[in-house]
Amino acid sequence: MISNSDVIEEIEGLIRVYEDGKVERPEIVPCVAASMADPDDDEQFEEGMTSWDVFIDKSTNVWARFYVPKTITTSQSAQKLKIPLLVYFHGGGFCVGSAAWSCYHEFLFKLSAKISCLIMSVNYRLAPENPLPAAYEDGFKALTWLKRQAIMKNDNVSKYYCPWSKHCDFSRIFLVGDSAGGNIAHNLATRLTSNSGLDAKRLKPLTFKGTVLVQPFFGGEPRTDSEKSSPRRSALSLAASDTYWRLALPAGANRDHPWCNPLAKGSVLIEPESNNNISTNKLTRVWPIMVCVSEMDILRDRNLEFCGALEKKTKVEYMVYGGVGHAFQILSKSQLSQIRTHEMMAHIKDFITRY
C-alpha cells in the first residue's frame, strides 16, 4: 500500500522513505531460495555446491545462508577435511540488499566452490528502520551463534547442531564483506581487536585470521577526487551514497562519524594526539587485511586512503581492479567484469590459503 505522506528520502528504484516512517523497497533484484545441489542441474552439479538457511535470531529475523562444497559431504576421503569459514556481509548501503538476492547467491555459490571454503552469508537488519549500530550488533550476534556451533560441533544430538560444523575449521575464520558489508566486517574486526581483545576472548574457541574488504563503504564530509568525478561505471553515485548515510547513521551524526569515516577524529585508526590521551578503545592487535578496490568506483580514493592508514598498524594487501566500478562482481555481466571477478576470487583464495 502506498503511503499518503510526503517522500523525504529516495534512491530511485531502490528505496523510498516517507514522512510517516513507511519504507518501500522495490524488488529490483529477485530473491532466491537456498538449494541443495541437484545432479540434474548441470551448473550446480559442476560447481559441486549446496546451500541452506539457518535462523540466528528469530526475534529480529536475523538469519544466514550457508554455502558448503558438496565434495566434503559426499566424498569419504574428504569427510574428515576441515576447511576455513568466511563470514560474509552483503552490501546495499545498510538500507537495501539481502543474503537471498540472486546476485549474491550466484557470487557466493561460485566463490565457495572456487576457493574450497564454507561461507556463512549473514542477513542483518536494515536502516532506516534499524539504524546503525543494528547491523554491527547483528554481525556480533552471528559470531556468538557461531561460537555455539563450535562448542557443539561433536554433539549431533542437540537441536542446535548443524551438520556443516564438523567440516569447519573454527581456528581459521575470516570476516568478509562488500560495500556496506565491508564496512560491517571492518567495524566488527575493530571491535574484536580493541579493548585488549576482550570480545574476541568471549568468542573462543573461534579464531579469526583476517579480514577481506571488497570496495568497503566509507564516507566523510570533505569530498575526495574520485567522489567529485563520479565515474560513469560506478553503480554507486555520490547522491545515493549521501542518502544511504543519512538513513543509516544515528540521528544527528554526520559523515565524519567513525562508523562512516574510519579516518575521522575519534576513530581507533587515528593515533592519540599525546601520550596523555589514553584511549580505552585503542587497537591492541590488527589481523592481516586484504582490500579490493575498483578503479572506476567513487569510493576508490577513500579505500586507498584507508589502506594507507592501516599500513601503519598491520600488514595490508590491496588490489585495484582496472576498468570496473562499484560492485562489479555482483552487478555487472560484462566480459571485463567477469575477468576481474575471476581475478578477485583468485586473490581472495591466495590470501586465505596463506593464513
Automatic annotation (TrEMBL):
<protein>
    <submittedName>
        <fullName>Alpha/beta hydrolase fold</fullName>
    </submittedName>
</protein>
<dbReference type="InterPro" id="IPR050466">
    <property type="entry name" value="Carboxylest/Gibb_receptor"/>
</dbReference>
<comment type="similarity">
    <text>Belongs to the 'GDXG' lipolytic enzyme family.</text>
</comment>
<dbReference type="Pfam" id="PF07859">
    <property type="entry name" value="Abhydrolase_3"/>
</dbReference>
<feature type="domain" description="Alpha/beta hydrolase fold-3">
    <location>
        <begin position="86"/>
        <end position="329"/>
    </location>
</feature>
<keyword id="KW-0378">Hydrolase</keyword>
<dbReference type="GO" id="GO:0016787">
    <property type="term" value="F:hydrolase activity"/>
</dbReference>
<dbReference type="InterPro" id="IPR013094">
    <property type="entry name" value="AB_hydrolase_3"/>
</dbReference>
<dbReference type="InterPro" id="IPR029058">
    <property type="entry name" value="AB_hydrolase_fold"/>
</dbReference>
